[in-house]
Amino acid sequence: MGDLGALPAHLAPRGAGVLASGELTIQGIGVEELAERFGTPLFVYDEDDIRARVHDLAHAIAPVQITYASKAFSAVAMAKVVASEGLWWDAASLGELEAAVRGGVPPERIIVHGNNKSFEELERAASYSVGRIVVDAIEDLDRLDALGVRQIPLWLRVAPGIEAHTHAFVRTGQVDSKFGLPIVDGTAERAYRRAVEAGFTVTGVHAHIGSQIFDLAPFGELVHRLSTLRHRWAVPELCVGGGLGVPYLAQERAPTLSEWGSYVREALRGTSADPADVFVEPGRAIVASSCITLYRVGVIKRIPGVRIYVAVDGGMSDNPRPVLYGSGYMAVAASRLYAAHDTAMRVVGKHCESGDVLVDEALLPSDLSVGELIATPVTGAYGYSMGSNYNRLPRPAVVMIRGGRAREVVRREQLDDLFRLEVGA
Ligand code: LLP
Predict the structure, then answer these.
(1) What does the pLDDT average to over 310-316?
(2) How far is the CA of 244 from the centre of ligand 1 (A)?
(3) Is there a single domain that holds both residue 242 and residue 173?
(4) Could you write out the DSSP letters of every residue in 199-241?
């Protein structure tokens, strides 16, 4: 991969390269060709990079089981990757469950989550004979009871009372949370008793402490707390959730999947858990950096002495993270990585909101021009999956590149797609 000019290598997919002209390539395919063939905005995933990240984690953590948290990016094509890599799939809704099944993930490797599961979701999960259902609240037991579902092994998701340092919206381990059965007030204990008395099979205990976490220590603490519960309830399995952070900006660094994997593996040595019965559940760290988004510049507004606005053909509908969480991203002139990226510009979308910002202060070439391609790296997680049709923008296409060949795995929405739900339109 080496030097990618203005694009820091640790933010780029592993298949990224650069031509002498400065054009960014993914597995040898130039971004101009990708934009020409598939249009913009475009999500471009380096599938071999996703697989390599999975292998890195597996190498560090085996025989611990790896579950992919599909909320990060749940295309059927991703489910196929998960199926072929032998991972498990975390589904938190009917749609995520269906994506797994359509992608060929064996049902026994699907883990069903959700803090408010419907009868329909539980019924469907049972009809597929999914691998595990994670009980997040007593109501899950009520509904499983009413449905007469007893054969699926259950995990109890607890709120372990661990505070991870991340954005409040994605923090989940603390006591004041909508997720999980609190340990401190005895709810978790009561749920366990109730489950056992009602004849359910509880095989494990689960917790997820949050997302975009840079610190390893909370995971060690979590392993410790969950092992205590596992021991008390005499259940074999334990899942420490996901949450490993990734760098989005040049100056950011996060533990790699290998480092995280080794840390968790090491933390387990101090417990009586059989590592083969332990699960991790990362989403972001598997897919985020394997993807870039390509946009075409449409308008450049220079307000002397104030700011330069660069408007691209997407925006908060394909990446709501900057607006929702104030998340930082960087942008590069994707066909001119060797040009000096030294002029501050605000990269904005085409939505009817001043808040529709993709990169608050990007450094881009001073002579950036209309029609050029811009790439934002690290957009593979919670971008497409959290996208919307705001302003009736069609959702972008998603391309995956494997073995040097690019294929569209999700087509771009067409105008007619935008009206398919409207009765009589
Ligand atoms: N397991 C459970 C039960 C989860 O709720 C989540 C994420 C994960 C695993 C995976 O976490 P990850 O490894 O991706 O951090 N939309 C937010 C992130 C929300 C995370 C929700 N749950 C964002 O864009 O930052």
Answers:
(1) 98
(2) 9
(3) yes
(4) T--EEEEE---BSSB--SHHHHHHHHHHHHHHHHHT-SEEE--
